[in-house]
Amino acid sequence: MSATHPTLDPQVADAITTINAMVVGAAPSMASGSQFVTLGYAQSLAAYNAVFAQQQAYITAQTASVADVLAILRP
User: Fold this and answer.
1) 61 FRET partner, CA 20 to 30 A, in 2, 3, 21, 45?
2) How many CB atoms lie within 10 A of CB 42?
3) What pLDDT score does 3 carry?
4) What is the pTM of this model?
5) Where are the alpha helices (DSSP H) in the chain?
């Protein structure tokens, strides 16, 4: 093997070409999978925030009801 003109084994070159083709072929599916996971996290966080807001609204409504009832019952 010469230092100025190194030769590459054809099997190694074929393996590298195959791996490069696999990576290029898998990139769109990997990107789609990542996008779907991110979308799932965003939807679950939105549902969590909606439940939390609903719970806070119920607490506020119950507090207002108790205050109104106390105002009616107190002389």
Assistant:
1) 45
2) 10
3) 57
4) 0.57
5) 10-73
Structure tokens at 63: 């507090």
User: In this predicted structure, what is the pLDDT of residue 55?
Assistant: 97
40/50 Cα distance (integer angstroms): 15
38: its two tokens: 């991110």
Placement of tokens 């898998």 in the chain: 26
Tokens representing residue 57 in the block: 């609204």
pLDDT (tens digit per residue) in 22-75: 888 888 888 999 999 999 999 999 999 999 999 999 999 999 999 999 999 987
Q: Is the torsion defined by CA of 58, 64, 65, 66 positive or negative?
A: positive
B/e letters for 49-60, b = 16+ CB within 10 Å, e = fewer, are eeeeeeeeeeee
